[in-house]
Amino acid sequence: MSMELSGALQGAIYTALSGDATLSALVGSEIYDAPIPAGSALPAGPFVTFGEEGVKPFDTVTSRGGRHEFAVSVHSQASGFAEAKAVAAAIGNILVDAALPLSGGHLVALRFVKAQAKRGVAPELRRIDMRFLAVVENI
To answer: Where does 6-76+91-138 sit in CATH, by number?
Structure first.
């Protein structure tokens, strides 16, 4: 198993994030699976982007699976970290131990791995990069 369920996993994560009322109150619909194009105006408030994903096999005798480590980033133009940390906390509450439905597969586990909060380059003044680990199996 390599990237077989990667698209289904990303779609389920996007659906979970974009459908959550708490996160929507913080970022609206500003959740992107691609970087904002260079030279484009950034959203007025905080926003979320999907980042890198690495996959390792997680096969058993009876099923094929994968360990997907992926990044979700919070971007903020606020001068302090409070806004970005509130968004990151909401994302963690949505994803950790979530029972996300996957088309053609099954999510075994979804865990938080780590996060790094850092200062960005203007106009993005704050950024938090979060890493998660999802174990999926093909059914």
So the answer is: 3.30.2000.30
